[in-house]
Each structure stands twice: as C-alpha cells, then as structure tokens.
C-alpha cells in the first residue's frame, strides 16, 4: 500500500487575468510534478508548461510534498523570468520597513540610488496613506548611515524626536523611527534568525519552538533629587550681647573703667560670628545647587534612557506587522514563542500612539523630598490589549479599516501562538476574495464557514468545556478565538452573545468587526473605534487611549502570512504527532509477506485466544484494542471519506491475524451491498455476510442470533461454566462471535427493531463471548440509551458536525479533524480518556497509485468532479501490494488448512437460493423452508400435509410453476395412485393433460366443463369404486385413488360479476368443505384469495411476491414482513410465517408409473363443435369437427341407438349419444333458441331420428321446407294448409309433429289442429316439438307455445342470459358455448349439455 499525501494549493494560470484555482491534490509518496502537471493544467484550462513557485522555476522531477511543493503553496503556470535571467540587484543590505500605519507590513530594500516614499511614488514605495504627499521623502544611503530628505511634503516629516521642515534633511541610524504622514517606518537589516525546521515529506514542515525565558516587564521608578534648601540667615543675638554689660559695669565700679572694654568685646565677637556664618552658608548653598543640577541631569538622562529602552522593549514585545510577516515567512525563531499561560499570551498590538510610559518619574515636591509618580507620555508607542484579560475585542469603523485591523491582529495571534494553544473559528463568506479568506490556510483554523457552522462549533466547545469544568476535568484548554468580521449582518447575534459571555471563563474569546460599535456583542470588553484614520481604545476598567493610529494591513499581507504558515506544524506536537497514513503491515511487523501463511499459523499457535486487534498508532505507540477488556462492544462513527470502512476492515483483518477461527468468528452486516468489508468475507473466520437487509432478512438474522445466544447458553450450562472465559478453560471449542454492522444508522431508520434487537442480544451475550461493533456515517440521533449503556469503547473518525462527534465520544474534537487526514480519529474507552489515533489501512488487491485532483470552493469544500489518473497505468508499471486484503484472506485460509482447523459453526445459514432445483431434495419435496430459529433449512412436502393449499401471488411470481412442482412431487412417486385434474385459466398448463396421472386439463373458458369437473369430483370416489367392481375378472376391491385438483388463477374464474350464479365458485367451495380425505385441492390466485371464503377452508396458504407489496395487509402482514427477495417461488407460509423457496420441478421429466391396481383418471368430456347425425345414428365413422374448434376431441358413438329414444347429438355428461326420450321427458317439447343457434337443425335431428325409428314425421313450416328436406319426409305442412296434417293424424295417431317458427302458427289454420293433436299426444303416443325464440316463449300465454311450455321440457339452444331458461323453470347457466347446436337438454328442471348433430340432406352427403 502506498501512503498518500493530501495537500491544498493554489494554481495561477499563465494569463494573469485568469482566476486562480484552489485545488486539493491527493497523491502517493514519490509523486513528481510531472505526474501532477497534466491534471493541474486541466483544472485551470491551461496547457502544461513551465511551473514556478515563490519566484523559482520548478523542474518536472520536483517531488510532491517536499519544499517548495507544500500545503498552501501557490504555483504559477509560467516562467518566473520570461525574458531571460533575472536582473542583478542594486539594493543595499538595509530595508525600509513600514512598522505602523494604514499600510503597515510593507518592506522594501533601499537601493543605492535612494528610495522615494509617497502616496504615489512610482518605482519607489507607494503607501496607502492619505496624509502622505505624492512624493513625500527620499531615503538615501550615505557613508555613515542614511539621510532622510523631505521632498516638500505637506504634512512634514519626523525622525526620532526631530521635526524636519519642508525641504530639510536629517541623518538617521537604524534605531530611529521615521514618521511619514500616519505611517511609521524604520530601517532594518534584511534577514532574521530562523527556527529549526524539518520537512516531513508529506507537504508539511515541522518547526521546533525554541526555548523562550520571558524576562520580567520593566517598570522602573526614577526619582528626582531633592533640591537643596536655601541658606538660613543667622540673627544677631542682641540679648546675649547685652548681658555682659551689667557685669562689666560692676567690675568697672570695683576695678576701674578699663573693665568696660571687656563689656564691648563679647558683642563684637557675637556679631562677627553671625556675619561669618552667613557668608559660609551662601557658599555651601551654591555648591549644593550645582551638585543638585548635576544629579537632576543624570536622573533625567537615566529617565530618557529608560524611556528609550522601554520603547525598544515595547516594540520588541509586540512586533510590528512587517516583523510578524517576516517571522511567518522565515519561519523566524520567534514563531509560536508564546506558551499557554505565559504572561504575554493573548496580547496583541493595535497601532501606534502617545501613551504613558511604564517608567515613573517622581519629581521633587520641595517638602517631603518626593512627589507623586508621573508617567510621562511617550510618542509612537504600540497600543496593546490583552485578549485573555478582556475576553473579546470589538473593532468598529469603515469596513476596509476594520478588515485591515482584524487582519493584523489575527496575524499576530497565529504567529505568536502554536496551533496547539490557539484555535480559530472563522465566519467566512462564499467568495475567495473575502477579507479574511486567508485564514482558511492557517493550521489554527478548526472551523471555517457560514454563521451556522461557526455557531455550532462554538456551541459545542462551550458545552463541552462547561461539562468538563462541572465534572472536575481539565481547565487549561487551548484558547478558542471566534472571528466574526461583520457583526452587523449576523443573524445569530442573540445566541452568539450568550455563548461568548459564557465562554469568557472557558478560554473562548472573540474578535468582532462592525461598522457601528452598537452592533458589537456585549462580550467585547475592549472596543476600538476608527474614524478618519484615527482610532480610540476603550477597555473596561482602564483609562481609554483617546487617539492613536491603528495598524492596518492589506489583503496581500494576510495572504502571504496564511500561505507561509499553512504547511507548518509544531514539532513539539509532532512528537505526539501521528502519521498521515499507516499500513497494517507497519503495525504488524511480525507478519512476513514472503511466508504469510506460516507466520499467521505460528501466531495462532502462540496466542491465548483473546480478541486483540492492532488498529493503528497513537502518540508514539501502536494502538491496539482488546475486545474482552476494552469492549466488549464498540461504536464507530465517521462521515464519507473519513476512513471508517477502512477501520472496520483493519479491525476484522487484525483480529483474524491475531486469533484463529477456533478463537474468534465474524458475522458481517453491511448495508452498502458488501463493499465495506470486501475480501473480509473470504476469511476463514467469517461465518456470515449479510448485505442490504430488508425487514424480512433482518428478522431472519435477528432470529438466528437469538438461536445462537440460546445455543451458547446451553453449552455453558452443560459445562457448568460461569461465563465464556470459564467455559473456554473447561471445554474450549467455542469461539467468540464478533458481529460487525456497518451503516447501522440507516438500519436504525429503516429497521429499528433489528438494531434494537441486536443491541439487546449483545447485552445478553456479553458474558457469552458475543461482541457487537456498530458503525455509521451519521451518529447524531441514532445512538439510543441502550447503545449508550452497552457500548464501552467509542471511536469517532471525522464527522460532519459537532453533534455527531458529541454523540459518539462526548467531545467536539472529531468534527474538527481535517478532511485530508483519512483514518484520523479519536477514541474514548471506559476510563474516559480521549485518545487521538491514526488508523492503519489494509490494502486491496491490485491497488494502483492513484492521483486525485479536485477544485475547492471558498470554504475549502470539494467543488466539481474529481480528476483522477492511474500513475501505474501512465507509467506502464503494475501495482504490487504485498499484504493486500485478498492476499491476507488467502493466507489465513491456507493457515487454517495447515492446522486442520474445523469449519466454525455458522450462526445462520446462507439465505435461500432464488433458483432451487430438485437436486438434493427428497422426492416429495416442493421446496425448502428456512428455520433460522433452529439454524437449519428443511424440505417442504405437499404429500405429507393434510388439507388444501392456497398459493397467492402476483403476475410472474411462480404460481403456475408452483402447481407444476406440486404435481411433480406426486407423480414422481413410483406406483402413485394419483388422479389429477387441472382448471387452467391461462392455458399454460394444457400440456399436463399428456400425463397418465391427469384426467383432464379444463380451461376456465369452458365454464360448463368446469362445472362437470366439479360434479365428477363429488362422485369420483364412488364411481371409481363401482368401476373397479364391474371390471371383468375383478375379484377384490381395489384401493380408491387419491385425487388432486389444481386450480390456476382463481381471480380469472370470477371475471363476470354474476359468474357465481351458475354455482361454479360455490361448487368449488362445497367441494373443499366436503372433507373427503382422498381429495387435495391447490388453488392459485391473486390477493382476492386472501379475503374470500376459500381462505377459511384452506389448511395452508403460501404467499408469493405480490404485484403491490402493500396488499400483504390482507394476509395480516405488513410490507416489512415480506421476504427481501421477489424471485419467483419465494413464499411466506402464513400459518407460521416461515419463508420458503419453491423448487422448479418438471412433472413430465419426473413422472413415474402409476399403480396398475388403480383405475385411470376419469376424463371430463369436451364436446366437439360439429357432430354428424348419421354417425350418431349408425355408431360408425368419425365425428366432424369445426375448422376453428379448439382442442376438440372425437367422441365415438356408444353403439346402435335404442328404439325408445331419439338420438339428437352427443351428451357432455356421459360422453355418449344424447337422447330425447319421450317416455321420460314427455311428448310435448319446445326447442328454444335465439336466431342462428340451430333451432331448425334441432328439429331436423329429432325428425331424422324419429324417421329412422319408423315414425311418421310431419313438419309444419314456411315455404322454405328446410326442416322437411333435412328430415327426408314428404309430409310438409304449411300453416294455412292443414289438410295433409289432418289426414296424416287420422292415419298415424302416433304422428311426430315438428313445428318450426311456432310463433308464425298463431292465428293460422293450423293452430287449432295442432292444439288438438297436442292435447291427445299422450294418449296416442305421438310427439309434438315446436321451435321458437326465448322472447316468444316467455311472453306467450295461450296457444301452442304456451301449451308446450307448461311441460317444461325440450332443448334450450345456446342460452345467453339466465332468463333464457325461465320457460323451462330453470336459470340458464352462464358460460354455455355459443357454438350453433350447443344446447341444454331439459327435463324435470334438470339439464344436460349436449352438442346437437348436424343433419345433412342427401345432396349434401353426396357433395
């Protein structure tokens, strides 16, 4: 298996005017640019050509995933230097860097000829600063530094603390800031210290974060020296000077006047002393003043130095946008320098303004020696705010300014903080040019999308952290920053404000932009308001910064920074880092591909039988699962493309490699048609694979599992074991059963009972060695309380939303897994610890090195089709996978055979075959019944079951085939005594009449024949016995034959609403109710059979596939109770709801000899359409049949005609000659029929038979003489010429009179004569037969017709309606064939169907 690299990048077409395309490329390791280039060109619509990245041309052998072909790279489909080699640079080693202002972040090298800066500086540096002149200043290199020359700007120039007048110039070094309009620039040497990096080869670069001892923040206090006190002027002590005078006077009195001189000496001395003191004090004060001035100057110099150091420190603490971009591009040594919990974590710079210094100046107050500390205002200091302290930062103002400030604040955060410590939730639009669209490339971005996406992400973060805090869990969470660029248009402001307020103590902060400060959420405890290029900062509990210049960056700055950080990963996390892909071979290093079967068998021989599976790798270690200790049950969630199905295959395969089929077996349930498990079904451990369950199969599987639980309980009870492990120690031989269900959410939606049942069984089976593994794409809402209670180990791959992740692992982390990391997931076991892992993948046969390219939309989602190519096919090489799944399955099978392991017990048998043949079935079996509760399948016999069967199904469901199979199961028995009859509505069973066991196949259209069949079956047993007794030579009573009636198409028997009028359906119901044990009836039909009376009589009903499955409700079933298969012959036995598959059997091929002792089946006569009267009379020759007759059978006459009857045709009931017997029927007969039904022919047949018997026949008819000619008599009487009739009557009292069209006789001369003959016919032994229509017969109340009608005897020709038989006192049955000459012979209100013979004249015979 080839590990793959998945990375996103941007491709710019050759034409710069064309739109760039974001693509995700998934390629195996070792792929080169030449392999990918055709798909890149196809995606952009450009022909493949030169490719450059970061200004450097790339060769075709550039390796995909190695620098510079990294995640987030931008490829240009053109030559970076189309006109030749690049021009040599004339730049110095010093850059001019714009460190603050409206276009911060710009960096340009200062050329030797100097650099012009302005609003429109041509080839110089043009800045988007409205306070700049078009050509504002020139910066030129000099021998001792650089010189800044004002080019006559409007708003002047400032270098350091010096204002430069228009046209003036100033020499600067690299430490001075240069103020140009609202922008601030400085000179800096190009290049910076870089961080140690390691290219991983998968499109990512690991960055080592250097140690960072954070010095304490400088906050010195400088005290002004105390000014010397002014000298005190000494006072002359006049009292002291006068005190010696009295003493001197006394002495002078005693000693003389010279003593008065001593009196003057003391005052002089005192005065001199005072004068001397005053003079020396003034000199000392002068010296103190000079010393104080020196000390004050030193203190002020110290303060200035501290201010300079503080300025440098504050600029260094909060790097400017240009430095931030340089750190990201490097990557610089300062990348991700701030650790979680550090003093400066979350601090960001907003701009440059005049701020109080941190260093305090304490002036001399002239009293106590020190005054109140003063923080002098320093110009051009970074304005900062601590995001961790304020919780939320709001920025209000014009949209472009807000976007620029947000951009540079975010840039500082993501450059200073590792993705391990900082995560972004960014609300973004649907366009690639959104102001914050660059954040989609950042490794910190965990959620990027619309308002609902961000709201859901925040909701889950806050909820999870609140729960962790409540339960005493961790509180040192990574900082989550919600980035909301436009609060004015936020439809979720209410809930969002609540989440942000709750999240402030949970390390959830926000960066919010708006055009009005009033639109900002209350969570913004720091607000920046921008107006006319100036900004004001207000922070809760702090003095505002009334005015400063905000740092604003342009779109290019964010794009470069995002692309630079895109491929970087934290090396500290990389040690914990997981591989992007992993082959199972790497995790099972003991498996030797060259001799896999041997190493597998060795592993099986040394294992202790525990269900251990190596599934992948966690941080620095292999990740394995022991179902007996970590389980016993497992839940896996993961959306499409997350690697969920791969994990299931790895789990099953790894278990199989570790444990033999004697230790563990699998039942695999896949609702995706079996694709999830692939060749896992070929493992010798797999005892069941179920795909695409419907409700019927689900019930079957659940019932089989219940039976398996019962079997295991019985085995443990027999061994006296406490649990599964105890049983293994005592007896062994019982493997663990691992049930793996993929897509159980779909099952839960469509078959909730199945999932609930399996979970319940798993709860019972945990001590019986039964393990359940549930997997789904959409866990939210599918994880019930039972699943929560029984599943101990939970695994979440990447899921679609936080709710899914929360439902599986109780954390939102799985919702933030990257889409380009299939197999990445989180696991939470019984200890509650959440572990991130990379699942191993087992190869598939013939796996090729596939390259996929798909376009991405603005939210990094796949857009449009995936363009793919097979690298092996392109290079003409064959893919080789040493340990693919098919090979491992084959090796495991070989190992099982080498160890002579028995095939493990199957908890359920395979589903019934849809094509069941007689091979392997008993002779009397009609199908196979599935009994999952008994874990077996048994044959089904019709011969062994009592009673009648109904077979219900829709078209093409196998109803007719079922009848053939049932018949075959009877006739296949040698010496069978079966007499079978078939009522066929479709004609498909007509060939069965060829079988010696079949008496007749009666088509449903032959309605009267159907009735005769039913009449025959009522009396068949007695008739058969009687026939056996009359056989010549019969000396013993033979056993009565068993009778089988097959009725195909019950619904077609009832095509007419009044069909039951003739009693056919009632007759069939009566036949079934008769309780004759020798009669078995099988009826097929549609759903109408389920609701009719027949369903209450049948002992067994088989339900085949219905035309509309909803019709199963008529059988008390729901749609879900029906079998999954709709194959012909698949049935449900309604009595016990057992599923059957009827076999396809051929009675012709399988028929055996009948029992010779049993009479053959009695046939059911089929009347021909044409019978010759001469043949009937003589009993010789063949019967004529009509050319269009269907399946007519020739019926021979039964012998010479008896003298007591008149042969008129053939009888359906006897199959012999139909007789008109005057002695039985009476001598007054009517022939009633509609025109064209053969009334005249009927009269001719009677007359010809009477003439053949020697009787005189008179025919009363019109001028045509048709009947008389047919009879062959010369006695033809016209209704108005009755002389011949009277004469004949006198001569032959037993005269046979035939009257055609009797309604024409009414009122004629013949009417009274005929009435007289009729009144005396019984006495004279004659016969009067009149023919008329049903209408005349039923509406005539006097005359000849009425007289004859009272006898209610005669022939009813082809009745059309039941009312046609009213004259005879019967209801004419429907369905009588409308063939001319087909009639009912009626006498005593009983009737027999006959086919009247055709009487031909001598001319017709000759012809």
Model description:
- With 1407 residues, this protein is α/β, with parallel strands linked by helices.
- The chain has 7 domains: 1-87 and 848-880, Phosphatidylinositol 3-kinase Catalytic Subunit, Chain A, domain 1 (Ubiquitin-like (UB roll)); 91-189, Tumour Suppressor Smad4 (Sandwich), CATH 2.60.200.20; 238-307; 318-568, Rossmann fold, CATH 3.40.50; 584-846 and 881-898, 3-Layer(aba) Sandwich (Rossmann fold); 925-1030 and 1039-1150, 3-Layer(aba) Sandwich (Rossmann fold); 1173-1406, Rossmann fold (3-Layer(aba) Sandwich), CATH 3.40.50.300.
- Strands 22-20-30-29-28-23-27-26-24-25 form a 10-stranded mixed beta sheet. A 10-stranded mixed beta sheet has the order 33-32-41-40-39-34-38-37-35-36. Strands 45-44-53-52-51-46-50-49-47-48 form a 10-stranded mixed beta sheet.
- Strand 54 (1206-1211) and strand 55 form a beta hairpin.
- The longest helix has 59 residues, at 259-317.
């Amino acid at each position: 298996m080839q590990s793959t690299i998945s990375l996103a990048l941007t491709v710019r077409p050759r034409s710069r005017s064309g739109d760039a395309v974001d693509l995700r490329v998934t390629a195996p390791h070792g792929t080169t640019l030449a392999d990918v280039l055709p798909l890149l060109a196809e995606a952009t619509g450009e022909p493949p050509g030169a490719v450059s990245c970061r200004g450097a041309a790339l060769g075709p052998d550039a390796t995909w995933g190695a620098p510079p072909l990294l995640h987030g790279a931008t490829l240009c489909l053109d030559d970076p230097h189309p006109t030749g080699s690049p021009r040599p640079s004339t730049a110095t080693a010093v850059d001019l860097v714009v460190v603050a202002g409206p276009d911060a972040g710009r960096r340009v090298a200062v050329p030797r000829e100097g650099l012009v800066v302005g609003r429109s500086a041509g080839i110089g540096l043009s800045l988007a600063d409205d306070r700049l002149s078009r050509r504002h200043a020139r910066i030129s290199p000099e021998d001792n530094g650089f010189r800044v020359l004002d080019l006559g700007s409007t708003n002047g120039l400032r270098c350091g603390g010096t204002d430069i007048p228009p046209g003036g110039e100033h020499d600067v070094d690299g430490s001075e800031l240069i103020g140009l309009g609202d922008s601030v620039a400085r000179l800096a040497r190009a290049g910076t210290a870089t961080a140690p990096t390691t290219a991983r080869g998968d499109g990512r670069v690991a960055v080592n974060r250097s140690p960072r001892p954070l010095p304490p923040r400088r906050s010195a206090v400088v005290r002004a020296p105390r000014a010397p006190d002014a000298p005190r002027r000494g006072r002359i002590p006049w009292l002291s000077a006068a005190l010696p005078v009295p003493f001197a006077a006394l002495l002078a009195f005693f000693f003389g006047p010279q003593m008065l001189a001593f009196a003057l000496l003391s005052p002089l001395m005192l005065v001199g002393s005072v004068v001397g003191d005053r003079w020396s004090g003034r000199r000392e004060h002068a010296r103190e003043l000079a010393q104080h001035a020196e000390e004050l100057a030193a203190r002020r110099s110290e303060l200035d130095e501290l201010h300079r150091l503080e300025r440098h420190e504050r600029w260094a603490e909060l790097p400017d946008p240009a430095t931030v971009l340089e750190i990201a591009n490097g990557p610089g040594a300062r990348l991700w320098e701030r650790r979680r919990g550090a003093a400066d974590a979350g601090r960001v710079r907003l701009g440059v303004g005049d701020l109080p210094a941190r260093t305090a100046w304490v002036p001399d107050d002239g009293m106590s020696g020190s005054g109140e500390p003063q923080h002098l205002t320093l110009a051009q200091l970074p304005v900062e705010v601590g995001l961790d302290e304020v919780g939320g930062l709001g920025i209000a103002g014009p949209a472009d300014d807000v976007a620029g400030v947000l951009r540079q604040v975010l840039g500082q955060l993501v450059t200073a903080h590792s993705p391990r410590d900082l995560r972004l939730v960014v609300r973004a639009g649907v366009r690639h040019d959104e102001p914050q669209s660059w954040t989609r490339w950042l490794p910190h971005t965990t959620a990027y999308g619309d308002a609902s996406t961000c709201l859901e992400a925040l909701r889950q973060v806050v909820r999870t952290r609140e729960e962790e805090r409540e339960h005493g869990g961790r509180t040192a969470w990574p900082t989550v920053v919600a980035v909301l660029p436009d609060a004015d248009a936020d439809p979720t402001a209410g809930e969002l404000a609540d989440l942000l307020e709750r999240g402030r103590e949970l390390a959830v902060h926000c960066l919010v932009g708006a055009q009005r400060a009033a639109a900002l959420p209350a969570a913004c405890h720091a607000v920046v308001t921008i107006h006319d290029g100036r900004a004001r900062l207000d922070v809760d509990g702090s003095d505002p910064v009334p005015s400063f210049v905000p740092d604003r960056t342009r779109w290019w700055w964010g794009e470069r920074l995002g692309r630079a950080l895109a491929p970087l990963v934290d090396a500290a996390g990389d040690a914990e880092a997981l591989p992007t892909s992993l082959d199972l071979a790497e995790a099972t290093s003991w498996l030797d591909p060259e001799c896999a079967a041997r190493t597998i068998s060795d592993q099986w021989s040394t294992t202790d039988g525990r269900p251990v599976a190596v599934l992948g790798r966690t941080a620095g270690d292999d990740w394995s699962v022991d179902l007996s200790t970590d389980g016993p049950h497992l839940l896996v969630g993961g959306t499409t493309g997350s690697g969920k199905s791969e994990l299931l295959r790895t789990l099953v395969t790894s278990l199989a490699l570790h444990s033999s089929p004697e230790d563990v077996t699998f039942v695999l349930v896949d609702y995706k048609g079996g694709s999830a498990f692939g060749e896992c079904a070929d493992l010798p451990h797999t005892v069941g694979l179920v795909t695409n369950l419907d409700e019927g199969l689900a019930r079957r599987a659940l019932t089989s599992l219940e039976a398996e639980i019962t079997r295991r309980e019985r085995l443990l009870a027999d061994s006296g074991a406490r649990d599964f492990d105890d049983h293994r120690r005592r007896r062994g031989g019982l493997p663990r059963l691992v049930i793996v269900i993929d897509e159980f959410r779909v099952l839960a939606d469509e078959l909730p009972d199945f999932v609930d049942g399996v979970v319940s069984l798993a709860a019972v089976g945990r001590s019986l060695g039964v393990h359940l593994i549930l997997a789904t794409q959409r866990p939210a809402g599918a994880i019930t309380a039972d699943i929560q209670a029984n599943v101990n180990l939970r695994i979440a791959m990447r899921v679609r939303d936080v709710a899914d992740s929360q439902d599986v692992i109780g954390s939102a982390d799985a919702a933030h897994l990257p889409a380009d990391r299939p197999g990445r997931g989180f696991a939470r076991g019984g200890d509650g610890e959440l572990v991130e892992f990379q699942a191993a993948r087992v190869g598939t046969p013939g796996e090729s090195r596939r390259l996929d390219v798909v376009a991405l939309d603005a939210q990094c989602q796949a857009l449009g089709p995936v363009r793919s190519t097979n690298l092996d096919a392109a290079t003409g090489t064959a893919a080789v996978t040493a340990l693919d799944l098919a090979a491992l399955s084959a090796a495991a099978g070989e190992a099982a055979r080498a160890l002579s392991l028995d095939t493990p017990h199957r908890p359920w048998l395979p589903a019934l075959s849809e094509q069941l043949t007689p091979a392997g079935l008993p002779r009397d079996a009609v199908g196979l019944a599935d009994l999952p509760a008994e874990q077996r399948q048994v044959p089904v016999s019709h011969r062994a079951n009592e009673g009648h069967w109904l077979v219900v199904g829709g078209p093409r469901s196998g109803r007719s085939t079922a009848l053939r199979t049932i018949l075959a199961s009877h006739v296949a028995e040698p010496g069978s005594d079966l007499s079978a009859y078939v009522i066929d509505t479709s004609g498909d069973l007509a060939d069965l009449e060829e079988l010696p066991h079949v008496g007749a196949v009666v088509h449903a259209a032959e309605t009267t024949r159907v009735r005769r069949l039913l009449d025959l079956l009522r009396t068949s047993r007695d008739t058969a016995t009687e026939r056996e007794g009359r056989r010549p030579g019969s000396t013993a009573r033979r056993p009565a034959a068993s009778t089988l009636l097959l009725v195909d198409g019950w619904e077609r028997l009832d095509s007419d609403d009044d069909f039951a009028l003739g009693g056919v359906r009632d007759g069939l119901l009566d036949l079934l109710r008769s309780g004759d044990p020798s009669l078995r009836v099988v009826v097929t039909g549609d759903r109408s059979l389920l609701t009719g009376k027949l369903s209450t009589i049948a002992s067994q009903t088989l339900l085949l596939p219905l035309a509309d499955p909803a019709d199963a409700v008529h059988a008390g079933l729901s749609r879900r109770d029906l079998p999954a298969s709709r194959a012909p012959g698949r049935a449900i036995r309604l009595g016990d709801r057992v599923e059957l598959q009827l076999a396809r059997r051929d009675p012709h091929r399988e028929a055996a000899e009948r029992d010779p002792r049993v009479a053959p089946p009695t046939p059911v006569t089929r009347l021909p359409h044409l019978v010759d009267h001469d043949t009937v009379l003589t009993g010789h020759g063949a019967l004529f049949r009509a050319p269009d007759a269907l399946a007519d059978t020739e019926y021979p006459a039964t012998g010479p005609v008896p003298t007591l009857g008149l042969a008129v045709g053939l009888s359906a009931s006897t199959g012999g000659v139909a007789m008109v017997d005057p002695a039985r029927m009476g001598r007054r007969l009517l022939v009633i029929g509609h025109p064209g039904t053969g009334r005249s022919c009927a009269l001719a047949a009677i007359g010809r038979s009477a003439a053949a018997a020697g009787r005189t026949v008179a025919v009363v008819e019109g001028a045509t003489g048709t009947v008389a000619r047919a009879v062959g008599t010369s006695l033809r009487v016209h209704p108005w010429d009755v002389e011949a009739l009277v004469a004949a009557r006198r001569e032959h009292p037993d005269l046979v009179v035939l009257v055609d069209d009797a309604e024409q006789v009414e009122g004629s001369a013949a009417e009274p004569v005929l009435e007289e003959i009729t009144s005396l016919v019984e006495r004279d032994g004659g016969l009067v037969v009149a023919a008329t229509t049903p209408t005349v017969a039923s509406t005539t109340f006097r005359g000849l017709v009425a007289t004859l009608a009272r006898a209610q005897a005669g022939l009813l020709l082809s009745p059309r309606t039941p009312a046609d038989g009213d004259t005879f006192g019967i209801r004419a049955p429907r369905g009588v064939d409308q063939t001319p000459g087909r009639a009912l012979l009626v006498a005593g209100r009983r009737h027999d169907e006959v086919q009247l013979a055709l009487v031909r004249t001598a001319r017709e015979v000759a012809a």
